[in-house]
Amino acid sequence: MKRGVKNQIVKLLKERPGWHPTARIIYEHLKGKMPGLAFSSVYRALLALSSEKKIRGFTLDSEDEKRYEIYTKSHPHFKCTECGRVYDIDIDINLAFKELVEVHTGHIVKDVHITYFGICNECLRKKVKKIVKDNDV
Question: Domains in the chain, ordered, with CATH?
């Protein structure tokens, strides 16, 4: 596998640290910069980078495709049910849940992934603005 594909993926994710693209989205962003790039090369590079712990791959409960991000520490996410955007939540609640599960079950937790679903503040603002406009308030 070309080292350039891995480097381009890391560069792309570092440029947009709160971004959570799928392999297909990453491929679409890179194919213009890398003529002849195959989707399979991007997919293999993502798998390698994930196993090297240089990026983190995760799947949301409501989706089939894996998403990727540069931030490798376990942290919760928020997915807007209106626009579909995924946001990082910068609260270290995963550690508390991990310890609680370990103490109560005797299991060893390797990773925690929590996703909250709802309406983001941007979509909420748009909804309120529309209501105000529609009701001539």
Answer: 1-72 (1.10.10.10), 73-137 (3.30.1490.190)
How many residues are present in the chain? 137
Q: How many of the other CB atoms lie within 10 Å of CB of 19?
A: 19
Tell me if 50 sits within 8 A of 68, measured CB to CB.
Answer: yes
Query: What pTM does this model have?
Result: 0.77
**DSSP string computed for 57-93:** EE--TT-SS-EEES--S---EEEETTT--EEE-----
| pLDDT tens by residue, 82-112 | 999 999 988 766 667 788 889 999 999 887 7
In sequence order, which residues have a C-beta less than 8 Å from that of residue 13 and are 6 or more positions away? 19, 21, 55, 68, 69, 70
Q: Alpha-carbon distance 10 to 42, whole Å?
A: 11
The C-alpha atoms of residue 58 and residue 17 are separated, in whole angstroms, by 15
Q: How many CB atoms lie within 10 A of CB 42?
A: 25
CA atoms within 13 A on the CB side of 94: 18
